[in-house]
Amino acid sequence: RSDPSYAKRVAEFMLRGGIDGSVHHKLARAILGKNIWGVEEWSALYGLNLSNKQLRKISEFPCGEVILNSMCPFCGKIVRECHFAHLGLEKFKGVPLTMMKLYELHPRTGQPKFYSDEPWYRNEEFAAKTTLQFRWYLTHLEIIPNSTDKTFQQQTQMLTEDYEVPSAIEETLKSFLYYRKNGT
């Protein structure tokens, strides 16, 4: 209540009827700080170059300032502090970006790395075929509090309607990219 800038944003949000428009990814970067992995990081650390068409497609970050500065429904922190945004890729340099492609890109000699030399899931569909969509993802950094020792259905019921269940590739890529950016 004492921050006039925040009060103005809340008033504008209410005047829009509760509709929170997207923001440009550069503004999202300024708000999220170290908790974002975008075009710049893909280019600098993986040598990936996106086409102008791709850049136009992802120029708008899907969440607005109000969402990024709001309270997380799971852990009580501000969303920008406990979530990581990353640009998901369907393909990496023309090849589907699957868990096994990530495995190939991150050998056991460095960090981040996969736990096993011979993963049991090598031929499973979730690891060999599933990819992300080419879009922005905003994922909670930690395990949702009080979600362990629950069935998948019980965990899913804990999510609010604006959250989707992350896939294995989404969680793995988030963890690897966060490590590459922040060293932890």
Commentary on this structure:
The protein is an alpha+beta fold and 184 residues long. Helix content is 41%, strand content 12%. The model has no long low-confidence stretch (mean pLDDT 89). Strand 5 and strand 6 form a beta hairpin. The radius of gyration is 18 Å and the shape is globular. The chain has a 3-stranded mixed β-sheet with strand order 2-4-7. Strands 1-3 form a two-stranded antiparallel ribbon. It has a two-stranded antiparallel ribbon with strand order 5-6.
Topology:
Elements: H1 4-15, E1 23-24, H2 25-32, E2 36-37, H3 39-46, H4 52-57, E3 60-61, H5 65-68, H6 79-82, E4 83-88, E5 91-92, E6 95-96, H7 99-105, H8 125-128, E7 135-140, H9 152-158, H10 168-182
Parallel strand pairs: 2-4
Antiparallel strand pairs: 1-3, 4-7, 5-6
Fraction of helical residues: 40-55%
Number of helices: 10
How much strand content do the residues show?
Answer: 5-15%
SSE string: HEHEHHEHHEEEHHEHH
How confident is the prediction overall: mean pLDDT?
89
Low-confidence stretches: none
Radius of gyration: 18 Å
Q: Describe the biggest sheet?
A: 3 strands, mixed
The number of strands is 7
Structural class of the secondary elements?
A: alpha+beta
Apparent shape: globular
Q: How do the strands line up in the largest sheet? A: 2-4-7
Distance between the termini: 35 Å
Relevant terms:
7 strands; 184 residues; 12% strand; 3-stranded mixed β-sheet; alpha+beta; single chain; two-stranded antiparallel sheet
